[in-house]
Structure formats: C-alpha cells, structure tokens
C-alpha cells in the first residue's frame, strides 16, 4: 500500500507539500498540484483517515446511542440526523443499546475510544446513569435528545409532551367526546408521564371525569397498544375515544378493534402521537400529534457542532412545539 512518502518521492516534492495538496490548507501552485495528483492516481494512494484525525485532532465522526424499537419514530429521527451529518461533512456511528444499561455504557465507551468528535444520546430512560461514566472523557461534547438519562449539564432537545397531550385530548373533547381514555407509555419515562398529565389537565379543565380503568400504562410498542385497547374493550363502559401516547400504540389499538369486529372511527375514535410515516397510509389515516423529526435531527447536529466549537458556553434546553395533524380517525359527535 502506497504511503505519503511514496507520493512525495514520485512527485519530487516534500511530504508536507503532498499534505497541503490533499487537505487544501495552504497555497500550492497548479503545476505542483498536478504533479502530486498524478502521483496519487498512479500509486492509487488513499490518505489515512486515522493519521489525519490524529494531526488535526478531529475524526469528523459523531456517535449516536439509540434504543431498539419496532416504532419507526426512532429510525425516522436517525435518518434526519444522518442527513444533517452528511450535509455538514460528518460521518455517523450508530450504536443500539437494546434498552440495556450495561450495553449503553459499553457502547458509549466504544464511541469515546474511537475518538468521536461528539455524542448524541437518544435511548431508554429507564436506566439513569451518573456522571461517573464520563469522567474519563470530560471533554466530549454531548447533546441529549428528548430527555436526560443521567445527572449532567448538557444541551437537551425535547418535545413539549405536556402541551401535546393536552392538545390531543382537547381535540377529542372539541369533537364532542366525553368518555375519553388514555394509553400512555411506561411510568418511568418522563414523556409518557407528561403526555398523561396533558390528558388529565384537558379532562379536568373540561369538567370531565376519568373513570377507573381509562388510564393504562403501556410500553410505546405495537403489541402494547393492542393489549391496552383489549383491556379498554372489556370495561363495563368502554370509551368513545382514545388518546394513544404514540402512533405505534395507536396502530396496535386499530388491530384490537379490527379483531373485535369494530371500526375506527365509527365505533371508537383514536388519536396518536409522533406522526410517523405510516400513519397517513392507515385505513382510516390516523389523526395524530406531529413531532418535527427532521427538525429534531437537524437541531441536534447544529447544537452539537456549536457545542464542539464553543465548549465553554452555557448548556441550553430547546423545546420543540407539537402540532395537530387532522386526518380521518376521529369522528364528530
């Protein structure tokens, strides 16, 4: 394999001149550039990314931790992050934590050992970590997407889940529904509790009771939505409408109604949360609360790049505003 010294020898120049041509960081005459480029082509020389990163103290890579899920929300966010990385000349290294605290720590260690320039964290909140994990790598810039899994001062970007839950429930109330249930996520996830709190606030403000059994903690997955909807159908007075804490559970609820010989929205209306891509193709298309996933990915990268260039700046908390997407899964009474 050819080295930079081989290129310099063939072109009749110094290795520093070859480096300047490759990195375009200093003036080199066109005549010399042509000689160097011809030597590179003849020798089929490929610059060493590792050597370059050691010299400039940058790897042009960003690490991202995300948990596994059947919910395509995560993959849609990752797609936005990857696109933003590419547009800014960075590569993305993705690690899946599988919802495991030990795997999260191991993956983080791996990314930091690979000298990533920055970290994005978006994985299971059920496992909170302390700052001890990062004390060996105190200078790595980090942005938390949606919540903070450890006690630390980092930039945080999150959805206004309280507002979104209230917005979803108020929409159902505005359509004439009074018996409204809520399927939310796990109790130990902040966004699940906030969306439930938004539901409760809207119901309370409207003077509506929440009957026993109308609030169900689930898991943010398709199967959880199915089993939760089945529980609601077993109640003496099933709800007229359901606010599902994310679209995956709303889709599971669709399936439960189909299995029971019922339909959306004729028998029960459903509203979801996230606005994942498949929701507009359901029958009927799902009314939902939109999370700006592309904006989340872009904002995460922009925030991380700013943090990398300004490590001493004060940590910021950025809150994205949810938006109602009205389709056909909610009837009007």
Automatic annotation (TrEMBL):
Any one Pfam family match given in the protein's UniProt record, by short name: Peripla_BP_3
The record ties this protein, via Gene3D superfamilies, to: 3.40.50.2300, lambda repressor-like DNA-binding domains
Task: Note whether DNA-binding occurs among the keywords.
Answer: yes
Q: Does the keyword Mitochondrion apply?
A: no
> What keywords sit in the KW lines?
DNA-binding, Repressor, Transcription, Transcription regulation
Query: Which InterPro entries does this entry report, sorted A to Z?
Result: HTH_LacI, LacI/GalR-like_sensor, Lambda_DNA-bd_dom_sf, Peripla_BP_I, PurR_sensor_dom
What CDD domains does this protein's entry cite? HTH_LacI (cd01392), PBP1_PurR (cd06275)
Locate the HTH lacI-type domain: which residues?
2-56
Annotated protein name in UniProt: Ribose operon repressor
Q: To which species is this protein native?
A: Xenorhabdus santafensis
């Amino acid at each position: 394999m050819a080295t930079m010294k081989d290129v310099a020898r063939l072109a009749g120049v110094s290795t520093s001149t070859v480096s300047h041509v490759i990195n375009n960081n200093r003036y080199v005459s066109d005549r010399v550039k042509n000689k160097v480029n011809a030597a590179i082509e003849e020798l089929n020389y490929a610059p060493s990314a590792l050597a370059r990163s050691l010299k400039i103290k940058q790897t042009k890579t960003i690490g991202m931790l995300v948990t596994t899920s059947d919910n395509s929300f995560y993959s849609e966010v990752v797609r936005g992050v990857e696109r933003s990385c590419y547009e800014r000349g960075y590569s993305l290294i993705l690690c899946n934590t599988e919802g495991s605290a030990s795997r999260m720590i191991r993956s983080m260690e791996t990314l930091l050992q690979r000298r990533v320039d920055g970290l994005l964290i978006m994985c299971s909140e059920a496992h909170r970590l302390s700052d001890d994990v990062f004390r060996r790598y105190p200078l790595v810039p980090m942005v938390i997407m949606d919540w903070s899994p450890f006690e630390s001062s980092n930039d945080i970007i999150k959805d206004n889940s309280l507002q979104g839950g209230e917005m979803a429930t108020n929409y159902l109330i505005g359509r004439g529904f009074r018996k409204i249930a809520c399927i939310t996520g796990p109790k130990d996830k902040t966004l699940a509790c906030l969306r439930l709190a938004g539901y409760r606030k809207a119901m309370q403000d409207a003077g509506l009771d929440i009957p026993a059994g109308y609030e169900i903690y689930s898991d943010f997955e398709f199967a959880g939505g199915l089993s939760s909807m089945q529980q609601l159908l077993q109640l003496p007075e099933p709800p007229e409408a359901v606010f599902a804490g994310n679209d995956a559970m709303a889709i599971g609820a669709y399936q439960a109604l189909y299995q029971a010989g019922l339909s959306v929205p004729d028998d029960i209306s459903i509203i979801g949360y996230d606005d994942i891509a498949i929701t507009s193709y359901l029958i009927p298309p799902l009314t939902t609360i939109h999370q700006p996933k592309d904006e989340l990915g872009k904002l995460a990268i922009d925030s991380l790049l700013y943090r990398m260039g300004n490590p001493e700046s004060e940590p910021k908390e950025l809150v994205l505003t949810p938006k109602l997407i009205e389709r056909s899964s909610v009837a009007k009474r």
